[in-house]
Amino acid sequence: MKNEIIPMHYPLGSSWTGMFLVLRDSTNILIDTAFAPAIDSLLVPVLAQRGMTLDDLDFVINTHIHADHFSGNATLKSRSRAKLAAFELSAPKLRDPYPSMNAIRSRFAPELPFVPIPPGIQSPAPDLVLKDGDHLGDLRIVHTPGHDNDSISLFDELTGTLFSGDSLQGRGTPSAGVAFYQSREEYLYTLDTVEKLPVKTILAAHPFDPTDGVIQDVPAFLKLCRDTVYEYDRVLQEARKTCQTMPEFVDYLLEKSGIERHPSIPVLTWHTVATHLKKRK
Q1: pTM for this predicted structure
Q2: What is the DSSP secondary-structure string of 126-139?
Q3: Are strands 59-61 and 83-87 parallel, antiparallel or unpaired?
Q4: How far apart are CA 172 and CA 254, in angstroms?
Q5: What are the C-alpha distances in Å from 269 to residues 114, 256, 274?
Q6: Rounded CA separation 164/202 (Å)
Q7: Residue 7: which CATH number?
Q8: Number of domains making up the chain
Q9: What is the mean pLDDT of each run of 10 residues along the chain (281 residues)?
Q10: Domain region containing 92
């Protein structure tokens, strides 16, 4: 029986974004496509090592519609027979991704300058739309919102592996400086959801601090994610004593709890701060 899981890391700044192959006798699935150049520079050679080509892929699915997870879709679709599957909340974004992506960047303008996503990302429409609890081969679709409303994880019922995308943030990445989620309540819902699954290993789409992207001690990591949320609650409540503006709250959280004092994409930090401040009103 063919049973292989192949993580692939495409360089992204000083870090990486992940693509994952799940190869089985009946179905070969690619999770996320990073950026268009990753198809030739990373995916094609990995397949060739196994005597395979792009046409051996049956499905591709994205964990959510952010540029570093779906931008290779059009290239892959144009050169293979793979069908594009999408979660039901991702499907409209795939058809027109720029409004949702730029809404993340523009939410705090003009206080925080709006830097739009560069044009040029093509977006084929999905061939198959899936709901929470549906299956794609051995993979169960698990809606895990918080990072974004359409975020999903894929639970491999054969191996107990959870492909979490960006749904489980740990203490975040240098690009955000903190764990980046747009809804505190949805993020806690996701932690509750994953804790109920018989997960043996988590494969994340980035090396969320303090991991390398591979999480074997699942209960400890989920506890860390939850403790981080409560830490931000405490720190931002403390910040109310001296802070009045969003920039002040953001700086305070980064100073007290950040993993990077000057994140490369500051707007991501603002989203996390905003959802915590909303909770405390």
Answers
A1: 0.97
A2: PSEEE-TT-EETTE
A3: parallel
A4: 11
A5: 14, 13, 9
A6: 7
A7: 3.60.15.10
A8: 1
A9: 93 95 96 98 98 98 98 97 98 94 96 91 94 98 98 98 98 97 98 98 98 98 98 97 97 98 96 90 53
A10: 3-279
